[in-house]
Amino acid sequence: MLTKELAAASTVPLVLSVLTEGENYGYALIQRVRELSGGQIEWTEGMLYPVLHWMEKEDMIESEWRAAETGRKRKYYRLRKEGHQALKEEKQRWLTVHETMEKLWKQQPRLT
Amino acid sequence: METTTPFDLNHAIQQWRNDLAQSSAFRGENLDELETHLRDSVVALQARDLSAEEAFYVAARRVGTGAVLIKEFGKVNAVNVWVERCLWALIVMQLWNVISHAGIVLVTFLAQGTNVFNRGGGMASLYELTTIVAVAVAPTLITVFVMWKLFKSPDSGIGVLLNWLSGQPVVLAASLFLMNAAMGWVNLAEQAHFIKKYAPQSHSPFPLVAYYQIFLPHLLVAGLVFVIARKRLLRKA
Fold first, then answer.
1. Which of the residues A2, B68, B128, B190 has an alpha carbon 20 to 30 A from that of B209?
2. pLDDT, tens only, B5-29
């Protein structure tokens, strides 16, 4: 299970990445991340929405209220051009961290 | 034999939403989105054989506690939070003013009754001391006590009344203005009576400007209360 801090830090890149699969709504975004992480990434679900609203203010994503198949209205989010760019930058940062750690851990096999 | 009330899911969800709606950290749209999320979660949990009641409590827990949600939503809706704070600050200021004026009226009335002004010396100092307590210290303590009680138990009579008033900009502004204007007028009338009694040779204590000095600031504050309360309603919608 991820620490709170790491889960919070990875929220934006995870949301951006899931939205590259197509538009989606909050509940389904959380389910997708849970499924992909094998239950390792668990958010306090309501806290995703302030992040989504912040991302919307930053023009990374846009949203639209639409009626779902249940008849209830749902807010769907989709990536904007700026979101694709932000994801590219996020990917670069996370890969840098990942590659650095991998090199270090290859040098120190006993750590694993 | 023990009887149990069947669990009403819609009622529970409405109650959960109403509790969150008490905070200025949420806009109406945020609550719609959270409610949709909660309902989706309840449906998914019920599909895993949980009862409606169990599913509701698990889903609500997963969405997060009120305090956590208020903190996080408050960051993205910071303007709402500040509008709410400004409104309450103005309400508290106006209530303080009413209590303070009531203090002046009361102390002056009692002082006239005991005729302290003709006794001089220590009695006059006692009058001044009592005035300071009645005009500044007591109203502050009373206002702080009332606000503390209100935040401790928002479902009390005065809490419900103030919450209702905060959703009625016209009624709120008008009642604050009328309370302050009435208390200001009583205070002015008492001073006039007092001056007439103890200094009958002085000029009219009731020049027209006195009315403006007392009523105009309250009118301006009432206008401000109306604007902020209305803005608050629109932002919460």
1. B128
2. 788 999 999 999 998 988 888 988 9
How many whole angstroms separate alpha carbon A91 and alpha carbon A77? 20
Give the nearest partner residue to B34 out of A49, A57, A73, using CB atoms. Answer: A49
Is A26's Cβ below 8 Å from some Cβ in B? Answer: yes
Separation CA B6–CA A72 (nearest Å): 25
Q: Is B63 on the interface with A (CB under 8 A)?
A: yes
B20 touches chain A (CB under 8 A): no
Q: Does A47 touch chain B (CB under 8 A)?
A: yes
Q: What is the DSSP letter of A111?
A: G
User: Which of A44, A57, A74 shows the shortest C-beta gap to B36?
Assistant: A74
The answer to ipTM > 0.90 is: no
What are the tokens at B186?
């009583």
SS percent in chain A: helix, strand, coil, step 5: 60, 15, 25
Cβ-Cβ contacts under 8 Å for B237 (sequence gap 6 or more)? B27, B28
pLDDT tens profile B158-192? 777 777 887 889 999 999 899 888 888 888 887 77
* Chain A CB contacts of B69 below 8 Å: 46-47
